Amino acid sequence: MWYQVKQELIQSTTKFLTELARLLPGMVALIVALLISFVLAWILAIVVRRLLASFHFDERLNRWGFASLREWSPMNSPTRLASRTVACMVILAGFLIGVAAFDAESTSLLVRNIFAYIPNIVGAMLVLLVGGIVASFLARSVLIGAVNLNLQYARLLSLGVKWLVIVLALAMALEHLKIAPGIVDLAFGILFGGIVLTLVLAIGLNSKELVIKSLERDDKEASGENIEEPFRHV
Amino acid sequence: MEVDSIPQQTQEKTTQIESADLVVGVLADLGKDGIAALSEALRTLPGSPRILVLQRDPVGNASADSSQTAQENSSPSLLPWSAVGPDPLGAPMQSISIACQSLFSVSDKLGARACCFVTSEMESASPEWICRLLHPLLESDFDLVAPYYTPRALQGLLNTSIIYPLTRSLYGKRIHNPFGPDVGISRKLAQKILGTYRNANASSNQMHPLASLAPVAVCDNLQICQAYIGARVYPPTDWTSMSSLVAQVLGPIFLEMDRCAPCWQKARGSVSVPVRGECEPPPPETGTLDLNRMAETFRLGVRDLQEIWSLVLPPATLFEIRKVSRSTAEQINMPDELWARIVYDFALAHRLRTINRDHLLRSMTPLYLAWVVSYARELEAGGATNVEQRIERLALAYEAAKPYLISRWRWPDRFNP
Known about the structure:
Order of helices and strands of chain B: HEHEHEHEEHEHEEHHEEHHEEHHHHHHHH
Structural class of chain B: alpha/beta
CATH class of the largest domain in chain A: Mainly Alpha
CATH topology of the largest domain in chain B: Spore Coat Polysaccharide Biosynthesis Protein SpsA, Chain A
Distance between the termini of chain B: 42 Å
Strand order of the largest sheet of chain B: 3-2-1-4-8-6-9-12
Number of strands of chain B: 12
Oligomer: heterodimer
Largest sheet of chain A: none
């Protein structure tokens, strides 16, 4: 009996060691792939940073109207954001290549699927990025315009516009990622409708005062009262 | 800007005229009688120059009449000016810019000694004042004759608050209406501005010829004078497009400031510019003074635009603005020193493109309105007779704050009080 137990133990240990030995090259390959990708990422990040710096990328972005990208960037520098994004992508690619080195069918299938999914992720990230930039640009435009028109609910209006665009971008990004498309459609409809309804109610309730003022002004004009003001600007 | 900028219709008509000594571009609606009186007045100019008058013709109706007039009377010749149609919605400065460029091109093509741009209507019915802009060009070889309108307390406020004191402190010349819009220009100056536009390429569509006049004339050491031409009738305020107007006027001025930085950084103090003619007493102010609306916009700006202003203005300025906003409309007082620094900071942010330029200029409107409230309140308390003294005090504040501008301009990151 003791002999049989001993045999089984030896067999399982041998099996474990054999499996481990089979995995070892893969693990070494993963570590090597990671090391190489780290070095490559570092070099590429430096190259991208220098290239963009020589191109005055930050200033050019500002000039092209993407000043709000600064707020989203590390150390307020879109150049750093770009170089770090490139570095992260190289490290991720290195990791996936390293994982694919494991001689297991399921692993390589997983890696293949992940690689096939990468364009969706990149697309969704782009949609989110552009959505964020457009949202803050429009929010700022609406805020300044509303303040200059003397609207008391300027901030609310601006926030409403911002969230409308962000929700739209988020829904588009999730659609791109193919994550529960049915639920996303439904949730988007509810959220978008909710924001519009909130805005309509808020403006409707706030604009009571505006309508009263406008009617008072019309009354004054009708009664012939001189409301001409003397200011001329240009 | 080449002959392309001359509209086809005008181009065809001008080919019939080989040359002219003077070209007068009339954008203002003078009417038939006004044009006849103008022609009569132009005939009295010394030396009997050959004159071409371009008259605004947005619909093309006037062509037949005017060409007939051109044939009947040898001088001045009248031509319809199809360079500008009706003002594009919310962009009145754009049509003035197009017309001005067209005028320079036509006068350059005809080899005219000088040209004159007329966009305003005056309180006086007779258009003889236009000749006052032309006399110094013909008799004394001046290159720029800027208008000197009868100073009025509450009119031309954008000029009073920003354009005049800023131009004076930057370029060191006391030109009271550097942005015109009614001006006399020599051939030399017109050609220099055409050259500037050719070199500017991409940014030339954001530039405005009227904004370039004074800087180019000063920086190129050309002869400048002013002419009293009476009280101008200013167009009524459209509050819905106020911020757009501020952006359209200040944008080209700040652009010009950026372009001429090497020139204005050398200028210190200011000198007066000769004035021709006699000043008329200002007509009485009419209308009801209501400061509440403007004060309310300013307070709303302080409440909601802080995050934008904080990108442009230093903390000390923001603190002072908040302090000003706590007063009631009757007590709002924006010190001249503070206002001058605000204008300089916005000019710098425009240069650095800290935020989108249109957003930047529009966000300045509530601050400008606060200055208007403060100024109007002060004049009301002190009487309207002090207008010129009040404007002089503001201009001196701009001059005193110029070292602040130069420091920030040269070291925008390092010098941030």
